[in-house]
Amino acid sequence: MASLRAILASNQQLDSALPAGLVAIFIGATSGIGETAIKQFAKHTNAPRIYFIGRTASWAERIKTELKTINPKGSYFFLQCDASLLKSVDEVCQEIRAKETAISLLFLSIGSLITGTRTVENLHYFAALTYYSRIRFAVNLLPLIRTAPALRRVITVFAGGKEGPIIADDFPGFKLSATAGRGHFASMLTLSFEVLAQRAPEVSFIHDYPGFVKTDLARGTKGVGMVITKGLFKVIGPFLYIPTEEVGERQTFFATSIRFPPASGDAKGVPSEGVGIAMGTDGRKGSGVYSVHLDGETKVQEVLSKLRESGLKDKMWKHVEEFIRVTGSVSI
């Protein structure tokens, strides 16, 4: 477990422990968790080059202005994209690959609670944002992440530590509500990271659960249940929400700390007193893939082990062939 004090101490060392000019990509950073994460990362790093991707250009202009105030030495670039569409994801990735030769951090926090609808690519909208586009970004940009000199890390923010059964006859989750689908998609994300880590053992992969955070994930949802839920959150939320700045600090820690090293290589992250190495999803310390709660701890090894033994990991990854159906290729 990493205390908040240890997390803050680690983050304070970023500008000196890591080289200047780190390239970071934040997907879904124009609001919520992504917005606070990008601000804290910019605050602590030395002259970062940050690309942030979202749908709303007007929000992006505000964030870019704030980032320049937080760290005038940094460079900030907004790329507009509807991440629910894999073809749009590919276009953005091609643009990034044309401009950069190495990426130190890929941070994924896109999402929505809208379920039961299909995208024009015939993907479940909820799954398109929660799973397909996240893995597509990771697959497309992994070659550049593998070449980064000091930090090589992929973060996805969803429900780390809350993995559950995978519904083998409904990988896209069409029959699942956002609540019922949490364990299903959490397991798919974590196990997909294990596949990618086998291909790129010099990269760290982290799936985390941020805790009770104020976001706009419920935007656009309909139905009596969601109306009641949103009304309840308005009443009790202020008493339960984790402070926004703290959320960003914790995500920055996940993105940079030595607690989450890759399986091999020297891009281990920022060392800090009192911060030990985390247990990987395979039950070994420092094994490169981590599924963690907001305190940096995980207890999902048994759940994931059963999914591997059942063969669902291999079946799930074969389902990624949906990429081929939609885009014509496994990656750009």
From TrEMBL:
Entry GO MF terms: oxidoreductase activity
Does the record's keyword annotation contain Oxidoreductase? yes
> Which spans are transmembrane here?
none
UniProt cross-references to Pfam families, sorted A to Z: adh_short
Source taxon at top rank: Eukaryota
Is-annotated flag, keyword Oxidoreductase?
Answer: yes
Q: Which PANTHER family match?
A: ALCOHOL DEHYDROGENASE-LIKE C-TERMINAL DOMAIN-CONTAINING PROTEIN, YALI0E05731P
Q: What is this protein called?
A: Short-chain dehydrogenases/reductase
